[in-house]
Design goal:
- The structure holds two protein chains of two kinds.
- By secondary structure, chain A is mainly alpha-helical.
- Chain A has one domain.
- Chain A has eleven helices and two strands.
- Chain A has a two-stranded antiparallel ribbon with strand order 1-2.
- In chain A, a hairpin with a 2-residue loop joins strand 1 and strand 2.
- The N and C termini of chain A lie far apart (43 Å).
- By secondary structure, chain B is an alpha/beta fold.
- Chain B has one domain: Rossmann fold.
- Helix content of chain B is 39%, strand content 27%.
- In chain B, a hairpin with a 2-residue loop joins strand 4 and strand 5.
- The radius of gyration of chain B is 17 Å and the shape is globular.
- Classes of the chains: A mainly alpha, B alpha/beta.
- The interface between A and B is medium-sized, with 17 and 28 residues.
- The complex binds adenosine-5'-triphosphate and magnesium ion.
Chain lengths: 290, 234
């Protein structure tokens, strides 16, 4: 049983990170029906930029804030320079643009920063809690807490504020949204900015547990995408549940079978859902086949 | 003139959907555009709202050239549309649909406007918490009209508000249109149902294959032999 709880804790921790990444996929998908495969790079920027800002002598909390802002700037740049000018391009074309952006960002990170692994100190110590014989790191508690707060803030924004409702309205019916005077281009831009911030935050939080590297965004992005597919692209609740499902499934497979299967789990789950249940657990509609 | 359109053309790719359209709508007028399937009526309203680009010509609203203005800005200037097919925010509540209709207005004006429209459409008040997608066709049409009115438009564009509705409901929609015009709202109405559309109007235009082929007082058009033959089934 101890083993089980150990795997569960590690699954929930990494699952909460996937949830934050998946929220980014869903935000952008809702605003523009686009799957942004540069989402993982925001996570990489969050971790790497914090490391290098800190190395430049900036206090850690400020370094993290600057890293999140940097990811927001990069996300906005992708939208302004890559997506907005490509108006009228097919869904596949837009996805290819985001993949291109991801490759560019990764390449730049490898040059501007470096190609080594880096870690960050945990937010509040490394003295683990022992629950049911299993250990839970304080950093995991931080990750749960931050993810929960973000989820609540997003829920409040989308369910209670007129601007949040306008963003949902753009997802449900972009034509009608324009006709009531919502600037749908601004909605897309805000979605990219939010997705950038969420991704980078995930990167800041996970780096103390899993070292970062200029290529770390590839796998984290794919896991977040898997989480979004499981939960249903576009659903906020789905992104969270999907993240936890992927995280737990992966931790259990790694623990009980072999850590060699860890990454395969997410891919098997993506394939199963895309074939058998494309709308996901909480999705309103299936994604267009791409 | 509230709305002036001169030499307007619009294309879908290489297909020309509108060609050399000249059209005006005066303050407090009700103007109807009639035309068959695919004549370009929806394209014309989409171009006026700015969700479809104009390839030639100018659109002026209260004298201001708005041909290249964003759709959002046109709503702020006072142009609101009841689109064909109603275009609900289906999973959202009736009330949220209405609130979004007032997206461009100052916050303090929204609540009073909402109450006013609930007074006009009590049925919507009863259903305010229900997802818009669960309303009947007639109720959705009422909601689409109410949502457009929440923007407090000076010019209301209506695209086939009677489409697909039972005759009894169609009558209610036209009653609503008459009430609206009695309160001074300027309306540009598009109708395939030429008789009903022209009956409420001051003036009318007949659109065929993207061109205006006839225009005049609504009463004259209703009496016109060509209109009778082509659109009134007489
Ligand atoms: N999105 C589009 N892409 C390509 N062609 C289009 C598009 N929308 C409309 N068209 C074409 O433009 C022409 C005008 O269409 P429009 O929808 O404006 O007609 P309409 O008068 O509103 O017809 P209806 O009474 O059926 O609503 C038609 O020939 C139509 O096939
Ligand atoms: Mg039409």
């Amino acid at each position: 049983m101890t083993e089980f709880f150990q795997f569960l804790f590690s699954g929930l921790t990494v699952g909460a990170i996937y949830a934050l990444i998946a929220l980014g996929f869903s935000l952008i998908y809702n605003a523009s029906h686009l799957i942004n495969f540069a989402q993982g790079e925001f996570v990489m920027i969050g971790g790497m930029a914090t490391v290098f800002f800190a190395a430049a002598g900036i206090e850690l909390p400020l370094a993290a804030v600057l890293a999140v802002l940097l990811a927001v700037v990069v996300a906005v740049a992708i939208e302004r320079l890559g997506i907005a000018p490509a108006k009228g391009t097919s869904a596949v074309g837009l996805i290819i643009i985001t993949i291109g952006a991801a490759i560019l960002i990764r390449g730049l990170a490898g040059i501007v920063w470096d190609r080594n692994f880096h870690s960050l100190p945990p937010i509040s110590g490394e003295e683990p809690l022992v629950i049911m014989g299993a250990t839970l790191l304080p950093q995991s508690l931080w990750i749960f807490g931050v993810t929960a707060v973000i989820a609540l803030l997003l829920w409040f924004f989308f369910a209670k504020t007129l601007w949040g409702k306008a963003m949902m309205a753009t997802a449900y019916n972009p034509l009608a949204a324009q006709l009531v005077g919502i600037d749908t281009r601004k909605v897309v831009l805000v979605s990219f900015a939010l997705a950038g911030a969420l991704g980078a935050l995930a990167g800041v939080l996970i780096t103390p547990l899993a070292p970062t590297h200029f290529q770390v965004g590839v796998m984290l992005g794919l896991k977040g995408f898997a989480a979004a597919i499981v939960g249903g692209l576009g659903s906020g609740l789905g992104a969270i549940v999907g993240g936890l499902v992927i995280g737990i499934a992966e931790a259990m497979a790694a623990g009980y079978l072999s850590s060699a299967y860890k990454d395969a789990v997410a891919f098997v789950i993506i394939l199963l859902f895309l074939v058998l249940w494309p709308s996901g657990l909480f999705g309103l509609r299936g994604i267009e086949r791409v | 003139m509230l709305l002036e359109i001169a030499g307007l053309a619009s294309h879908y790719g290489r297909i020309r959907a509108l060609d050399a359209i000249d059209l005006t709508v005066g303050d407090s007028e009700l103007v109807t555009i009639v035309g068959a399937n695919g004549a370009g009526k929806t394209t014309l309203l989409r171009t006026i709202s700015g969700v479809q680009p104009a390839s030639h010509g100018v659109i002026r609203f209260r004298g201001e050239d708005i041909t290249r203005t964003t759709p959002a800005r046109r709503v702020r200037l006072g142009i609101s549309q009841v689109p064909q097919g109603r275009q609900m925010f289906a999973p959202m509540s009736v009330e949220d649909n209405l609130l979004l209709g007032a997206f461009t207005r100052p916050r303090h004006e929204i609540e009073p406007e909402l109450e006013k429209l609930y007074g006009l459409f009590p049925r919507l008040k009863e259903r305010r918490r229900q997802p818009a997608g669960t309303l009947s066709g007639g109720e959705q049409q009422m909601l689409a009209i109410a949502r457009a009115l929440m923007a407090k438009p000076d010019l209301l564009l209506m695209d086939e508000p009677s489409m697909g509705l039972a005759p009894r409901i169609v009558e209610r929609i036209f009653d609503t249109i008459r009430e609206l015009r009695a309160t001074g709202v300027t309306i540009l109405l598009v109708e395939q149902n030429a008789f009903a559309g022209l009956s409420v109007a001051d003036r009318g235009y007949v659109l065929e294959s993207g061109r205006i082929v006839l225009e005049g007082r609504a009463a004259e058009l209703l009496a016109d032999e060509r209109v009778k033959a082509a659109y009134l089934g007489l």
